Structure prediction request, 191 residues.
Amino acid sequence: MPGPGSDHISNLDPRAPLVLDTRELGRRPGSQREVTRMVPAPADLGIEVLGVPEGSQVELDLRLEAVMEGVLVTGSATAELVGECVRCLEPIEDELSARFQELFVYDDRDHDPDEDDETSRLEDDLLDLEPLLRDAVVLALPFQPLCSEDCPGLCTECGARLADDPDHGHDEPIDPRWAGLTQLVQDQEED
Ligand SMILES: [Zn+2]
Ligand SMILES: [Zn+2]
Prediction:
């Protein structure tokens, strides 16, 4: 029974795409099962500037292995990525491949829920892959997504995308007395 103040969710839905049933595996250490599934991406899979679109297909290749303490899950996820370049804001489309490994401990012994909340646990032979997938995807993302490694970004004077116009230049630096006005014009153009 969850203790007071516990946010432990005790009922996983076995039909949920990211919930796996490990019953078939049995509890004999060493028994293994390979699982490949296509699942729809859950919401907010990624970071603000780059992520897997909700509902797009994520391919999971998993190996489940019974060990003494529980079930060891080793696998990889392949998914579509969309986002924007942090330098020039151009849309980015890419493919992501993330690897992960996690031990899901059998939950049939009484345990103190405050003991260590970091442990992943099986619940009635079910395990929830979503937190694992989420962590693996975020870790595999580039910190600063770029449209190309040497993206020159935007012109600091007029905001043009320099990759489209490599010879871009301004004859004279804009007179600082006019800079404020230029900014004002740009703001109006963006509206
Ligand atoms: Zn760029
Ligand atoms: Zn410019």
